[in-house]
Amino acid sequence: MVSPQLRREAVVVMRSEVAVSERRACGLIEIHRRTYRYVPRPEDPRLRVRLRELAAERRRFGYRRLTRMLVREGWKANHKRVYRLYVEEKLSLRRKRGRRRRAGSRLMLPPRPTQPDHLWTMDFASDAFTSGRKFRTFNLMDGFTREALEIEPDTSLPGARVVRVLEGLKQQGRKPEVIVIDNGPEFVSQVVDQWAYENGVQLHFITPGRPMENGYIESFNGKFRDECLNENWFFDLADARRKIAEWKADYNHVRPHSALGYKTPMEFAASWKAGFYIAGLGQGASNQAVTKLLLGNAQPIVRRCPRDERGHFLWPIFTVKRAGSTRCSHQRWTN
User: How far is CA 141 from CA 124, 199, 229, 271, 335, in A?
Assistant: First the structure.
């Protein structure tokens, strides 16, 4: 495919060497006359400089997240312009090509989360201090809001330490319905099983050798390693805890998440909560109660699901038409 710039140059050459009109030349080259007459607007060099600065600060961010960061700062730039500058500055990331594996049969997958604290997922990651001594981190996240609930680094993390972290979150009013975990010795321990039984939490163990069944935490671990572990030197345990806590706060409050419509986990949780707690309805409200409150005596005409920039579903919307009215209103479905 020939680019518009090359087509404009071809029209210029044709008009200079052959006595044809602009209309005729554009028709032969198959370019619209508005495109031929288009004069690019002058580019703000500060945008290019700021893009380089952000890419240097967040080396594992692609152009889409960098676009969202620029928009937050007030820059007038869409993703197409940022992508062009991103390519011109040679800021593209090198992607690792995964090896091909034999397809297997589809097994039982964990339930899809529908609200905060519905499904948690946890796993371990490992790294080393500058002295060479190994340490591990216990990573725990909410599968619905993608919030990093806890990242606990230490040189030893047995099952009792896992229970202590879960109990601390319980004291803060957070408790899941389901926890998706692998078959590691810490998770199959008796203390974890006893805590889950006493608190009515279902433990969903993935199939051994199939980490893709725990995709939420595997995706989180990849971001955690790319953006934190691989980007920092850790001198001791206190230094690791400080830097990891700073990254966790940045992940929850600053970093845009593509699966959440490029919102941060805390922004997404706040917007979901604002849509759910309507007129005093709490977590005990049923779908029928929310529907009755939103629709009243109206009947839903269309139920549609909006998508974000990457085509992911956000939340269903009811388009309703109330009795005696010719106007339609859009109400958010909140569960």
Answer: 12, 18, 17, 18, 20
